[in-house]
Design brief:
6 strands, elongated, two-stranded antiparallel ribbon, 60% helix, 2 domains, Alpha-Beta Plaits, alpha+beta, 4-stranded antiparallel sheet
Length: 238
């Protein structure tokens, strides 16, 4: 058999190390996405990282660095198509861009691992995780900063992640609670997140917003049974 004639233990162990590194680092990135109930979670990020590592490692063994460079170029474009599948447009709001960018980062991590650049793969993983976690407070602070209504148009969204069996009741309570706080709701959408979870998205009628009042609504709804996460956000158009 040709396998017995060409098998080299050192090359096999090198491939195994590359795949194991991609698997571990992809797990770290995917665990953070899974914790936040994003569309592309743990398994997707792991498979992207391991798949990229496998293709690059294969090219390295067959055509050395030149082959790896060509494969990496195809990995970059291929992940673009995969990322497009997690981007969803809901009215004027676009969701999934950060998840798509994370998949792109997982592919880069896997490519580094497949090219035997393990230290670079670890460093890139740290930066991807930092972008998804450490920058979150800064994003929230910027989103909640007072807006100049003369130079921008703001749309406010209120989001609840609830169990399937509590969805109908919490939808009514959300609308009632917001209207009681004098924030009328323009429309309400329900998005199926899987794993027996749904996200209720309420778009508020354009009006002057007091962040403190919305935070009170968040705290109130967070205590309701069946609710796992409550938040609000603002989207602006110049």
């Amino acid at each position: 058999m040709r396998f017995l004639a060409t098998f080299q233990t050192y090359d096999f162990l090198d491939t195994l190390l590359s795949l194991a590194t991609a698997f571990i680092l992809g797990t770290l990135i995917g665990a953070e996405r899974q914790y936040r109930q994003r569309t592309a979670g743990l398994r997707t990020n792991v498979l992207v990282a391991v798949g990229a590592a496998a293709f690059v490692d294969l090219a390295m063994h067959l055509a050395a660095a030149d082959g790896a460079v060509r494969v990496i170029a195809y990995v970059v474009s291929g992940i673009g198509f995969l990322g497009a599948g997690v981007i969803m447009k809901e009215g004027t709001n676009v969701r999934g861009l950060n998840t798509a960018a994370t998949l792109w980062g997982s592919a880069a991590v896997g490519s580094c691992a497949g090219a035997d650049m393990l230290a670079q793969a670890v460093a890139l993983t740290v930066f991807v995780l930092a972008g998804n976690t450490l920058l979150r407070p800064l994003v929230n602070a910027i989103n909640r900063a007072p807006l100049d209504e003369k130079s921008s148009e703001a749309t406010y969204y209120f989001r609840l992640t609830v169990a399937d069996d509590a969805s109908a009741e919490m939808r009514e309570q959300l609308v009632e609670r917001l209207e009681a706080a004098h924030y009328p709701v323009a429309e309400v959408e329900v998005v199926d997140l899987g794993d027996d979870l749904q996200e209720i998205v309420a778009t508020l009628v354009s009006t002057a917003i007091n962040p403190g009042e919305l935070d009170v609504v968040v705290a109130d709804l967070q205590r309701k049974p069946g609710v796992s996460h409550v938040t609000w956000e603002v989207s602006t158009k110049d």
